[in-house]
Amino acid sequence: MRLPVLTFDIETQTDLKSGAHLFGLDLPEASLDQALTKLRRQESGTDFQRLPLHEIVCISGMWIDEQGMKLFSFSREQHSEAEILKKFLSIFDKRHPTLVSWNGSQFDLPVILYRAMYHGLSAPSLFDQGEIDTQKRYNNYQNRYHQRHVDLMDVMAMFHARHFQKLDDVAHLLGYPGKRGDGGYHVPEYVRNQEWTKLTSYCEGDVLNTWLVYIRWLLLKGQLLLPDYQHLVQSTIQYLHTQPQHAEFLAVWRETSRQTAFTQFDFPTPTD
What we know:
Order of helices and strands: EHHEEHEHHEHHHHHH
Shape: globular
Strand order of the largest sheet: 3-2-1-4-5
CATH topology: Nucleotidyltransferase, domain 5
Structural class: alpha/beta
Strand content: 5-15%
Number of domains: 1
Helix content: 40-55%
Number of helices: 11
CATH class: Alpha Beta
């Protein structure tokens, strides 16, 4: 496994101001949200907004290097969207981690690109494809077949969209917690009610599931040997014991790990 590794996820809500500008709407906020949803349904048959209209309210990550692992979140509790983006993008100015995501190629990174452009930000360390650093022609964060960014949903489907799976389903199948209840549609409610711990815990939960699936994928590929994989699992469990906001994640993981023969001993049963 090439270190450092940065597993990440974003949470978004509809950018009502930009949506009103795009469609020429002059409506109260509640009516505007409904109008944009209706327009999107007419346009595509889904409530899922166009990528440029996804306003980022949280970016969470798990940084793994020679020193250990650390979860972090940049959210609207303390930062504007532009500040969230600046903090996240600055990571790539200092280091060049292996970026790991679930559906990051089709959602997270394109949204980050559009929103960074919206705020007039520059991020060559993340988006350069060889125009500045010629080495990135052959290994950059955008190319789906390169190794700088591993979109697990894409690579595990062998790059065939018909085989795409949900992170929640794959995590459960492999003996990990999955999303544990609330889905992403609760994100605007968390922001509206200023439930910041719920927001960051939800986003970090996706990061943790992605990290666990990633090391299982590395085990499959032979990039981790079984003892190394087991060490990383135990290191993750030990780390989460220091993170009170993820006590539920640990508890659910303990239960789900018992559902597969391979993971049933991730949490040893105490003996007298």
